[in-house]
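User: My collaborator sent over this chain with a note saying "see what the structure looks like." That's all I know about it. Can you take a look?
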Amino acid sequence: MHDLVIRGGTIVDGTGSPGFTGDLAINGDRIAQVGGKAGPGRREVQAEGRLVTPGWVDVHTHYDGQATWDPVLAPSSWHGVTTILFGNCGVGFAPVRKRDHQGLIDLMEGVEDIPGIALAEGLKWDWESFPDYLDALERLPRSIDIGAQVAHHPLRVYVMGDRAIRRENATAEDIAEMARLTEEALRAGAFGFTTSRTDQHKTPAGGAGARPLRRGAGADRHRPCHGPRRPRYLRHALRFRGRGRRIPLDGRGGARERPPTLVPADRPFL
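Assistant: Without extra context I'll predict from the sequence alone. Here is the result:
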């Protein structure tokens, strides 16, 4: 007997093949059968008139704060997303010193319109380094998978302090330390490094302040996500996957199959 059987849905399996009607069976945390007529299940879901699909992967979110206190991560999990990636646009919450907590909240509120009062009430700040932040994320059970990226702004402020806020040029020592911390984050499990063209990420000369990081401590393998090459940061970061870490559905380090997603068959994809 299967643990779960989803019966009679229109299965769109993500391969590009046409959808087909059939059952999907799950045993434990593994998909046991796709298509055909499945045997009985301890729990059964009637899916006639709905699409049964793999979960969506949302590579651009800003759950950097919410992920530290919310295991469900709504509304994404309500709409078929089973993996999210945050730390985008060069804003985030690690690495960080206590004196900069409010400044990072204010930036996230100003750039991404996430209410500062919610962040102030929800963030526990039980981390300083980026590896510490990953540990904090891993302590919380999850409904969906998550991945984190190291963001330029908190990194720059962590190393340069008020000089970063004043948009001063980084010294050679600053650049070397930022590059070291970037590689430390990538080796700990960060999926990439992000920046943007906002004023906080520019030097007085107008260039992107992240560019010197390419030269130091192995960080030259990871391009910032600004300009036409934006998608490349993730491809480069994946070179570290053997040493990296993802926060899985079971919260204990074991990879699991993506759960299926059900949506009405007559609803267009957005």
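A starting point for your reply to your collaborator: The two ends are 36 Å apart (CA to CA).
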